[in-house]
Hints:
Mean pLDDT: 93
Largest sheet: 6 strands, parallel
Low-confidence stretches: none
Radius of gyration: 17 Å
Structural class: alpha/beta
Order of helices and strands: EEHHHHEHEHEHHEHEHE
Distance between the termini: 27 Å
Number of strands: 8
Strand content: 5-15%
Amino acid sequence: MRDEPLDFDAAIFDLDGTLLDSMDVWEEIDLRFLERRGLTAPANYVAEICARSFEEAALYTIQLFHLSESVPAIVREWNEMALYEYAHHVKLQPYAEEYLSRLEERGVRLAIATGLPERLYKPCLVHCGVWDRFKVICSTDQAGRGKAFPDVFALACQKLGCAPWRCLVLDDTLPAVRSAKQLGTLVCGVYDKYSAHHRAQIQRIADFYVRDFRAAPLPAKKG
């Protein structure tokens, strides 16, 4: 991890568990989904699927529980269960809005790289009042692979017109932190209880690690 301040031109945020306080919502959805089928979630189930795209998470679930259902059917059910919660109840993490403002004051462009589909993230960001603050929003659906691969971060950098080493990625999961570093971005690991078992590994890989956005890195002031 780095102690010295660094300069960067863009910040790329994960949503679930990083910018959005939404992981408890997904735990509830996952538990209800499995309970409908008479199944019990393993202790690490939520952590295992949170860095995957919806399609990858559905396939993992099918293989784990030997389900006969299709990937599109499971994704559709998850979307239907989550839509109301994201549009009305999910909120920003503590101090997130203040951090976005501080970044904007220093001329940092804001972007999102998420595993969520637009039908979930757009109404959520609108009701949280931050939709218009992001110049670029990329999903793993657009990139074609989940965050275990750097594709979605590379796509965000491309759309920002910014070299990876001039971008800061903020994410809570080990696969995402690892792949963003492989791409060459700066990385800030963000604490989330569902990824707490990977905290030591995240801290070894990331340039920064924070428990909340009060301690998140800022670039040097220009001029």
